[in-house]
Design a protein that fits this description.
The protein is of the alpha+beta class. It folds into two domains: 172 residues, no CATH class; 274 residues, 4-Layer Sandwich (Anthranilate synthase), CATH 3.60.120. The protein contains ten helices and 23 strands. Helix 1 runs antiparallel to helix 5 and helix 5 crosses helix 10. The N terminus is likely disordered.
């Protein structure tokens, strides 16, 4: 069981690690009920975390130009990304890596969609930014799992026994626990808030407003969101919820943030905003959607129709072009696919274009996220015109919906996606969010149906999580 420690101004971060057999992240998450916990992963590579060594936050009430306690109107409007990096370095110093090759400690969390305050009861516990340095991490991969325990101690304190004791105890509890033999089947016994009357009319009016703005040349696209509230028979089990979400969405980035105090946010994002490893950026532009077919033949027809759609190709090109423009001066050898490919998900399929390159000196994952967010895929184009229309037409707070969520470390590496296909809530009461890009040629009824498909991942996961006796 190798150990590492890193010196900080007056603090030491002690870490201990052990390899264990395959285990289920849902079992791990349920073990830490009542503490902050979370999940991040795609396919067979994932990390589940629990406990809080330190929390980094920027409250909603912090004015944008006074985050560091002084007026700085000449600096960029959104200072959250710079401030989070400063907070982490103030705690851990300039971490340069570790002898065991596992790299810098990671913090997990996210940012709200808008930098400006948006107080709302549904987003309690999700301020302008919130990240956690966990106490325990379980990392999963194709060859098994690694369990990590971390402690922050005073520079003159020796706490190896405490770290070793918790690691040994958790290894005994988790090693060899079999993956649950089945994924719980969703059931439709929850109460959904009826939103097919006045809200449907408001949706049609909002879409018409976007189309008029497009017609007169004020913007090319705006992404409108809508919500769905529901009350379950019982509170969902987090372990079952994340197990089902992973099972149904193997090609999406599945995430969960269950903050204490605060609510729970989970989702399955189809696109990558910025993933940075070893100086290489990977991102994807995802825009343009169609339903999945009922069988292989109809599924291929739907995919072919999506690839041939002028409307969807034009919408996709907006996202590709803006991401290329933003990254050109930040990335060398930028590679963007000439033509989109199909990204098939459980209930819907999208047009997807991968983007890759080597980042220039001085760039890290947070500078890239700050530059890219919000992309036309979650906001619109031009950005400021789309934001004004979103603020005017959406009668609810987006909170973290469509904001960047993920992890970063002191070396500047990290992984972020927009918080899409999400549910937020606590206990039996939840709110779901889904959006659609409105461009020339959009039809209000078809866009309404598209958002209904996008509610499905979170809705089905909640049903499955609440199905356990």
């Amino acid at each position: 069981m190798p150990s590492t420690s890193q010196s900080t101004p007056g603090r030491l971060l002690r870490r201990r690690q052990a390899s264990i057999g395959r285990t289920d992240p849902g079992v791990f998450l349920d073990r830490f009920e009542g503490e902050s916990r979370g999940f991040w992963g795609r396919g067979n590579r994932w990390v589940a975390w629990a406990g809080t060594l330190h929390e980094f936050t920027i409250p909603d009430s912090a004015p944008e130009d006074r985050i560091e306690g002084r007026a700085t109107p000449e600096l960029p409007r959104d200072r959250r990304f710079v401030e989070l990096r400063r907070q982490l370095r103030a705690l851990l110093g300039e971490w340069a890596g570790t002898a065991d090759g596992h790299g810098s400690p990671r913090v997990f969390g996210g940012f709200s969609f808008l930098a400006a305050p948006q107080s709302a009861s549904s987003w309690e516990g999700f301020p302008a930014a919130r990240f956690v340095l966990p106490r325990v991490l379980l990392r999963g991969g194709p060859d098994g799992c690694e369990l990590w325990v971390q402690r922050l101690v005073a520079a003159d304190e020796v706490d190896d026994e405490g770290v070793e004791g918790e690691l040994d105890r958790l290894v005994r509890e988790l090693d060899g626990i079999p993956v649950p033999p089945r994924v719980l089947v969703p059931r439709a016994s929850e109460v959904l808030t009826e939103r097919n009357g006045e809200e449907r009319e408001a949706w049609a009016a909002a879409v018409s407003a976007v189309l008029e703005a497009v017609r007169v040349g004020e913007l090319e696209k705006a992404v409108l969101a809508r919500i769905q509230d529901l009350e379950l028979d019982r509170a969902p089990a987090v372990g079952d919820l994340i197990r089902f979400l992973r099972h149904e969405n193997p090609r999406a980035h599945v995430f969960l943030f269950d903050f204490a105090p605060g609510g729970t946010l989970f989702g399955a994002a189809p696109e990558v905003l910025a993933e940075l490893r070893g100086g290489r950026l990977h991102a994807t532009a995802v825009a343009g959607s169609a339903a999945r077919g009922d069988d292989d033949e109809s599924d291929r027809r739907q995919a072919d129709s999506l690839l041939a759609s002028k409307k969807d190709r034009a919408e996709h090109r907006m996202t590709v072009d803006e991401m290329r423009d933003v990254l050109t001066d930040r990335v060398t050898g930028l590679q963007v696919a000439d033509d989109p490919r199909i990204l098939p998900l459980a209930r819907i399929q999208h047009l997807e274009s991968p983007i890759e390159g080597a980042v220039r000196e001085g760039e890290d994952v947070l500078t890239l996220v700050a530059a890219l967010h919000p992309t036309p895929a979650v906001c619109g184009r031009p950005r400021e015109a789309a934001l004004r229309l979103i603020r005017a037409r959406e009668p609810f707070a987006r909170g973290w919906y469509a904001g960047p969520v993920g992890w970063f470390d002191l070396r500047g590496e990290g992984d972020f996606v927009p918080a899409l296909r999400v549910g937020v809530g606590y206990g039996r009461r939840w709110r779901l969010f889904a959006g659609a890009g409105i461009v020339e040629g959009s039809d209000p009824e078809l866009e309404w149906e598209e958002t209904a498909l996008k509610f499905e991942p979170a809705l089905r996961a909640l049903r499955a999580g609440a199905a356990a006796p």
